[in-house]
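During the no-cost extension, the postdoctoral fellow (Dr. R.K.) reprocessed legacy sequence entries with the updated structure-token encoder. One reprocessed record is reproduced below for audit purposes.
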Amino acid sequence: PLPPDPARPVARARARAPAPAAAPGAASCNPAAAFEVMGCEIDMTDPVDPLWPCAVPGVTAMPTSNGAGLTLRIDMNAAPLASVPDGQWDILQVVGMTDGLWQYALNIGNSPSNDAWGGDANHTYYDAEAHLYGQTLSVWHSDMAGSGLAFQQSNALSSSGGFFEATVCDGSFTWESDTSPPTTVTHPDSIFQLREGDLDEDFYYVSFERVVWPQSSRTGSGIDPYPYLLFYAL
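Re-encoded structure tokens follow.
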């Protein structure tokens, strides 16, 4: 792993008992079981309103210090009550195309200061994350399991580009692409855990061509400018 981002405050050192190894392939988070689905197309070419005409509530574009890439803050408890009575989305899916990936092309996290390679800047214990660095996918446990590496796959995408789909829910992360069959990493306490009603712990963050933490200079390229988000209620 690369060293911590020098611009990031030192992440907390909260020791936890090591988590059992997360086993790829475990079944979890099945979008086919959803009773409600909403979609949201992103337009990364629009510097003013990249979310137009996205009608999914709770999706917010976050400003970044260097203006590079796009970070979205996603409230998983903002589903429209008319169609989802408890107001909670259970699954987030990030779908897109790539072309010539370079460095920090994608970062999905639990914390507003995730910046790849595990951990955050003391925002929350629940700071699991997944990121693409070039063609390599890495998935990291949260502080609840010591922020260790849960899973890593080189060549998670073709160097020439292609399709990817990342599926996230409480306790589970699944990756699929043109070159990778569906691969699932699970752990109930340390993989993208949601804690409904807790400040900063019922959100997911998705960054395209940069890491989540707005002050970080870690950026990348190679994501098609029109990725798509899908929200599922089970």
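The radius of gyration is 16 Å. The chain is about 0% helix and 35% strand. The remaining legacy entries will be reprocessed before the final report is submitted.
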